[in-house]
Amino acid sequence: MHLVRRPREMNLNNNNGGGGPCGACKFLRRKCVKGCVFAPYFEPDDRGTADFEAVHRVFGAKNVAKLLLRTPANTRLYAVISLCYEALSRIKDPVYGCVAQVFNLQQQVVFFIHYLAYFRLFNI
Predict the structure, then answer these.
(1) What are the residue ranges of helices labelled H in the chain?
(2) Cα separation, 76 vs 85, whole angstroms
């Protein structure tokens, strides 16, 4: 599973100055305009397009655009990372999504707490 690039790898001031469409506009087959809300977060390569495809399938492009416009600019990257993670998890497991991963991690924590208690009890 891959997620959007970290801030140092991406150009957050990329209002499509590069000429080509962003990953979202490429997927939606539309012209990427200056100031596109998706451009800073979904790069025009295959990875950005695949991330947007997952987000679009689960949440819808219009809903994501509205959400990003309502989110403060300094936290949008984290919102996009969360949306991508949830969308990719939801596609992988349509019933539980990322909740299944959280539950699995909780079970591992419980197991290792008991495992550690066992070894402390017998001083192994």
Answers:
(1) 23-28, 46-59, 61-70, 76-92, 98-121
(2) 14
18 vs 38: CA distance, rounded Å? 14
The two structure tokens encoding residue 85: 């993670």
Closest CA to 24 of 1, 45, 3, 2: 45
| Whole-structure pTM value | 0.73
How confident is the model at residue 9, as a pLDDT? 44
11 sits in which H/E element? none
How far is residue 5 CA from its own chain's centroid?
9
Query: By C-alpha distance, which of 20, 27, 25 is closest to 54?
Result: 27
Q: How far apart are CA 67 and CA 58, in angstroms?
A: 14
- Sign of the torsion angle spanned by Cα atoms 47, 44, 88, 79: positive
